[in-house]
Design goal:
The chain is 76% helix and 3% strand. The chain is mainly α and 218 residues long. The longest helix has 55 residues. The protein starts with a helix and ends with a strand.
Length: 218
């Protein structure tokens, strides 16, 4: 058998092995994606329960929908910051799908920074971490208003924090050369999780800040 024929056979075997590996990766990704959506479905019960508590408890004696007096500007700013972070998370996923590692890594960094800014905004402005500045701020002990606000924002903040940890892990792996245009399930999963957390806030924001008649909790 000629050297050309042997080379062709070796190349064919390598290609077949690559195709088998890619097929296995695609199948694993399909199963992982299904498992992730089942996880999101289970998580939805937590957030739906918090929303249900908000609409059940924040009702006046006359049946009018109520809400506490919160800083509308701060609420709008942290919402814009979080939604902007979703743009950069999507940009990171698109960049690695096109083998643009530089934009991929920078987009992850910006997403993590914006997510952290959202967390600090909630902690400082809505949780009143500096009572000397935010005197008379809503507290967890302030009846149904405090319990629901801290329950909803606290549970959401916990998910944002876990998302930032995931983004940091993906950035570290990407910096070491992991992920490619063909195989980047870790990036896709992190992006889906981040968009899911942002979607939850889209429902939480109007429920906390916009719906109902504002009532001073103090």
């Amino acid at each position: 058998m000629s050297a050309v024929a042997l080379g062709h056979k070796a190349d064919h075997g390598h290609a077949a092995g690559h195709d088998d590996g890619q097929a296995g990766y695609v199948e694993r990704t399909r199963r992982n994606r299904l498992g992730m959506w089942l996880f999101f479905a289970s998580e939805a019960f937590i957030f739906i329960g918090l929303l249900a508590a908000r609409f059940y408890l924040w009702v006046g004696e006359d049946g009018e929908m109520m809400r506490p007096e919160l800083d509308q500007v701060a609420g709008l700013i942290v919402t814009v910051v979080l939604l902007l972070s979703s743009y950069f998370m999507n940009r990171a996923e698109v960049s690695i799908a096109n083998n643009n590692r530089r934009d991929f890594l920078w987009s992850l960094v910006i997403t993590a920074i914006l997510g952290t800014a959202f967390l600090f905004g909630v902690i400082i402005f809505e949780w009143g971490m500096f009572p000397a500045i935010f005197e008379g701020h809503l507290k967890p002990s302030d009846g149904v208003f405090g319990a629901v606000v801290f329950g909803m924002t606290g549970m959401h903040a916990l998910h944002v924090l876990s998302g930032i940890v995931l983004i940091g892990n993906v950035w570290w792996l990407g910096r070491k050369g992991h992920f490619s245009a063909e195989q980047h399930w870790g990036v896709e999963a992190t992006a889906i999780y981040w968009h899911y957390v942002d979607l939850v806030w889209i429902f939480f924001y109007p429920a906390i800040y916009l719906i109902g008649h504002a009532y001073g909790a103090h």
